[in-house]
Design brief:
The structure holds two protein chains of two kinds. By secondary structure, chain A is mainly beta. Chain A contains four helices and 13 strands. Chain A has one domain: outer membrane lipoprotein receptor (LolB), chain A (Clam), CATH 2.50.20.10. Helix content of chain A is about 10%, strand content about 45%. Chain A has a 13-stranded antiparallel beta sheet. In chain A, a hairpin with a 5-residue loop joins strand 9 and strand 10. Chain A is globular and about 50 Å long. The two termini of chain A are about 20 Å apart. By secondary structure, chain B is mainly β. Chain B has one domain: Beta Barrel (Porin). Chain B contains three helices and 20 strands. The longest helix of chain B is centred in the first third of the chain and has 20 residues. The chains are: A mainly beta, B mainly beta. At the A-B interface, strand 6 of A face strand 12, strand 13 and strand 14 of B.
Chain lengths: ~250, ~400
Amino acid sequence: MNKIITSGFIVLFLVPALCGQELTGEDIVQKVNDLFNVESGYAKAKMTIMTTSGQKRTFVYESWSKNKGEKNLVRYLEPGRVKGQATLMLNNADDIWMYFPRTQRVRKLASHAKKQKMQGSDFSYEDMGSGDAFINDFSPKRLKDEKMEGYDCYKLELTRKPDTDVSYSRLIMWVIKESFVPVVIDYYDEDDPALQEKRLVESDIRVIDNIPTAMKVVMHNKNDNTQTELELLEVRYNITLADSMFTERGLKK
Amino acid sequence: MKKWLAVLVFLSLSLSAHAAQDSIELFGYFESQAMGADIKNEFLLLYSNKLRVDLKSSLSEKVTFAANFDYITFHGKTEWNILDFLRSDVIAEVPAGAESFFVLPFSDRHFLDNAYLKLSFKSFDLTVGKQQISLGTGYVWNPTDVFNIKELFDPTYEQPGYNALRLDIPLGSTYTLTTLFSPEDTWKNSAKLIQIKGRISHFDYSLTGIEKVWRFHDYTQFDFVNMNFLELPGKRKLLGASTAGELLGLGVWAEYAYNWMENSEDFYELVVGTDYTFNFQTYMMIEYYRNTLGKTDYEQYNLNDWMRMIALEQKAISRDQIYVFIQHPVADLLSVGISTICSISDNSFALVPTLNYSLSDNVEVFAYLNINFGKEGKVFAKNMGNGGVIRARVYF
């Protein structure tokens, strides 16, 4: 979830030295992964779920991240039903705690909780790319370059590594050559690598504090025919955040 | 009732006006609930409406005030005779002339549930006033929580506030020392708590020491002067530990408490639990609970056992219990689940199918059925009443 708000939409400009080099799949994924993780950041985001019946559910939340995404805190502002609920993720989301203000309880969650849908949306916490998931859980292979969403892109296939517990057998990713923004990601069924489950599309890419930032991300669920849209309302990078924010005490504030 | 409604409306309007000027947050929910139970071939219904108004104000960066007021009305079958649920040999223990005191009334209530001031400094947080006290890592049962007993069929429902003074002192980034004092009529009778919480690797753990008076009642003796059952207060000293983390990809937690009792037998409680989310989104949880105050033979359950469980004086009357819960999001706005609570000691269990539906952004519907499978006299006996609850909640 943290990646969505702070780093999931953002990438640095391509370092000039990379231009002209023939990048391998590993190089590109490493770049995407590295550039996902800004030193620190704050964002306010709106998540809109569009259901099969055409109904909408809207959530607004704030997020803070530090140490290149190693520490993350997310707190819901709207709707009233979830107001004050917060999630703290440390050690690249290996340690997760959730705070429920109505019962004032903090619950430690195991990493399998990342498979759960985020507030019933088409995003699982895992989809947000916790930690170094693209590198640790998948083996990349560079495919033939393609144009996607109007951008010249690197096309990659990421195949699930053996002995990992991710929910997808493989991903196909289109990465904008200019900025390393993964403009489209296709997610394939965990058991059937030919069956596409979801497609993520990033758009409205703006440069904020010299960092290209996708202000809008839409996840289309092919199985359920639903979609969830994430829109950044406010973003700030490289801000000073106290370590004490990223503790149980900070979670309950 | 009209007077309280007027006060509430006035309070809401005043606070709304004030909230517009200052940084007072006003929120809460309205909850409408219907509960039914099949008792002696008749399906009895109890309806309730609850309005909870929360307010929170950050008076400064270091000072926060929070409070909530609850107003609850009951309708339908508002008096339940507990003796309808008990075996004849247990009913025989009821003191003569006290039968009418075994009727459980559901009366309209309004009360200030929580109201506290929180002072946050760099080196400590001090919380003063009525506040929720949540202890332990267990989901259904919390051996280290001497303040609350969760509802078995609805364990995540909010708990009441307790008058207390709480001090939390962070010790570095991973440890916290907590002390809590919950006043009673004398210092000696007041509850005192000390807890250290920390983290090693991917595990949280805590050590807790508590001293509190436990106010049991003897339901076989009635005090006709005070018109109440005989109270048997006794000092309870508890030393407990809890942990939560991840093992082999599974979420795991455990909680243990040993209790030294002033006037009765010492006992211990233990909880061990695990959970997992499958790739197809199904969530599963298992929790085991042991309470050595509980009995191993249901024939030994007596009037005090039943009443202490119903009056939430004691967490369980059978020694060993297990809770299994499975939930799956069947649609984007709908989750269904089923839990079973099994009393291993007396071979009875209840099945509890559940449903959560998001009707709109701020409206949710929650429902469950409870179907008991057990012989008369057991914890989950059929005659305890099969039924269920449906609840709609609107947040504002």
